[in-house]
Amino acid sequence: MIPSALILPRQTLSAQAFLRLSTVKFALQPSKSRYLSVKRTSGQLISPCGLQVQQLGCYRLVHISSGPAMAKSKFEYVRQFETDDPCLPNCWVVVRIDGKAFHKFTDVHHYMKPNDERGLSLMTRAAQTVMSEFNEIVLAYGQSDEYSFVFHKNCKLYNRRASKIMTNVVSLFASSFTLYWPRFFNSQELQYPPSFDGRVVLYPSDENLKDYLSWRQADCHINNLYNTCFWKLVQEKGLSPNRAAERLKGTLSSDKNELLFAEFNINYNNLPELYRKGAVIIRPKGTIDDASPSLDKSINNHTRGHDARASKKPMSVVLHTDIIGKQFWEDNPHILNPKI
Ligand SMILES: Nc1nc2c(ncn2[C@@H]2O[C@H](COP(=O)(O)OP(=O)(O)O)[C@@H](O)[C@H]2O)c(=O)[nH]1
Ligand SMILES: [Mg+2]
């Protein structure tokens, strides 16, 4: 009969001893307890054969190795339900995060309308934290309550597992947003924890990627022009929100530009570029990690991130510039091709 536990006298075990019990491997370390007691794992037969004794001492069980021969519990099969979600090779990986119900969050926290410089700068600070954690990000673009992070098309981060990449980005972004809140809002307290959704989108060509970024910047422009007119009508002309919306219904960009100029003496093109163009974060040439594995597997993630964030190196540059035209890409060819 096989005992459910083996009680071994202390003198029989050693510092380097490995007790091989059937397919289960136990590593032993010194212990103050008098005996080593090895319990039977469920369903596994334990036999004391293979016990190697090199040195006298007293040891306790500290670790069950997880090598290929490791014993499996009867529950192990549930791992088969986990699915892998690798990003297609050779595609740009874009992670976009977006604030959850930020119409309410910005109201509760008294954001300036239509743009709050503190809120937008806080978003960029959180995005910079994400960029300093992941060197594989070649560019980030943000506007309103969203940020897009572009990972190099050859990046090997987390074996390109989409959910692993995306959840790491979104959770670090959210925690950084919360951490840095007081720096931007001073004594105005955070009323509740903000959250963000995240998604991964793959773009197979440079053109597709540029068009994606152009789409987000065009969205920034369209919304900002509309919101600037809307809030001017409400705040300075005293229109109700419904009336202001009526007034702007069906208008073209040129109509809105004209409205701002004629009624408020505002030249839209003179408004801050942060509001009109959003924020583009890029890295200085030579600092993009385009293909190498994201980290030495032996180094723990936290150490890596901590080091990167603690570093004083200028890891990123924030621009408020046009990324729709060719000029930006001609001026910064290293973004798409770090080898240049
Ligand atoms: N007042 C103000 N509101 C902002 C600012 N940035 C973003 N928002 C709000 O955040 C919303 C973001 O849009 P969207 O993600 O579609 O809406 P959500 O589902 O409520 O997060 C905008 O509609 C605004 O209400 C800002 O700088 N100032
Ligand atoms: Mg949102």
The CATH topology of the largest domain turns out to be Alpha-Beta Plaits
Distance between the first and last residues' Cα: 70 Å
Task: Please state roughly what percent of the residues sit in beta strands, choosing from under 5%, 5-15%, 15-25%, 25-35%, 35-45% or over 45%.
Answer: 15-25%
Second-tier CATH architecture of the largest domain: 2-Layer Sandwich
Q: Order of strands across the widest beta sheet?
A: 9-6-8-7-10-11
CATH superfamily of the largest domain: tRNA(His) guanylyltransferase (Thg1)
The helix content, as a percent range, equals: 25-40%
Q: What molecules are bound to this protein? A: guanosine-5'-diphosphate, magnesium ion
Catalytic activity: a 5'-end ribonucleotide-tRNA(His) + GTP + ATP + H2O = a 5'-end phospho-guanosine-ribonucleotide-tRNA(His) + AMP + 2 diphosphate + H(+)
Cofactor: Mg(2+)
Subunit structure: Homotetramer. Interacts with MFN1 and MFN2; functions as a guanyl-nucleotide exchange factor/GEF for MFN2 and also probably MFN1.
Domain Thg1 C-terminal: 207-324
